[in-house]
Design a protein that fits this description.
This protein has 11 helices and 3 strands; from the N terminus they run αβααββαααααααα. The chain is mostly helical. The protein has 2 domains: 63 residues, Arc Repressor Mutant, subunit A; 140 residues, GntR ligand-binding domain-like (Four Helix Bundle (Hemerythrin (Met), subunit A), Up-down Bundle), CATH 1.20.120. The chain has a 3-stranded antiparallel β-sheet. A hairpin with a 3-residue loop joins strand 2 and strand 3. Helix 5 runs antiparallel to helix 6 and helix 5 packs antiparallel against helix 9.
Length: 236
């Protein structure tokens, strides 16, 4: 049963609009970003007018963006009641983790066969920056670099479209991961990335794959702990 918290639309974190980006795509990207970063918390009521005022665009593209987000199960549009940010669905979290592990473990095997020196240097530099920001407890910077590390792996083996599909599907997983980082050692996650990188350096696909599986499993902490700490954010 869905049990929404009584929260009202908050101020969005506004992103710059890209050149030639349509109003609908811009609204979708900004609202989705705010949902995944928990600036729009699960259970928050969303006002179309407030979104329009903050994004400085008309109501039609905002409504279309919300329809797109509803198809991803990130918002619930309830006739005559309005729109609410969807609660985190534990089953969708599990399925997002399953898909990501299934795909990304194979991706690192391919990376071991295809990577060149330039791409390896990009990964290595990324992990060095992760370590720096982890040492300064800069969570937002670490998350950005973490996401970029995984995106680079898909790019190296020319699987960027696959990355987009996985990223779209794992939205519930991403929101739970954002919550879980309050209880997980960032330094341990950097160590995980170093272990994956070591397998790639050695061109050892099985070692890199095993280390990637271990890393993805580390991201998921005891879901019961999160539900007990943030019951208002989860669907029952």
């Amino acid at each position: 049963m869905t049990n929404y918290a009584h929260l009202e639309t908050t101020m969005l974190t506004i992103l710059d609009r890209n050149d030639r980006e349509s109003a609908r795509d811009y609204a979708y990207r900004v609202i989705r970003y705010n949902i995944l970063e928990l600036f729009l918390a699960p259970g928050t009521s969303v006002s179309e007018k407030s979104l329009c005022d903050q994004l400085l665009i008309s109501r039609t593209p905002v409504r279309e963006a919300l329809l797109d987000l509803s198809r991803q199960r990130l918002v619930d549009i309830i006739p005559q009641r309005g729109t609410t940010v969807s609660l985190i669905d534990p089953k969708m979290v599990e399925e997002g983790h399953f898909l990501r592990a299934l795909v990304e473990v194979e991706v690192v095997r391919q990376v071991c066969r295809l990577i060149d020196d330039k791409a390896f240097h990009q990964l290595e530099s990324n992990v060095m920056m992760q370590e720096y920001h982890a040492g300064h407890n800069a969570l937002d910077e670490f998350i950005h670099l973490d996401n970029e590390f995984h995106r680079l792996l898909f790019k190296i083996c020319d699987r960027e479209a696959t990355y987009g599909i996985v990223a779209d599907f794992q939205a519930h997983f991403d929101r739970e991961r954002k919550l879980s980082l309050q209880f997980v050692s960032i330094a341990d996650l950097v160590k995980d990335h170093k272990a994956v990188l070591e397998g790639i350096r050695e061109s050892d696909g099985e070692k890199a794959a095993a280390n990637m599986q271990r890393h993805l499993d580390h991201v998921l902490i005891d879901q019961k702990l999160l539900i007990s700490r943030f019951p208002q954010y989860f669907a029952s």
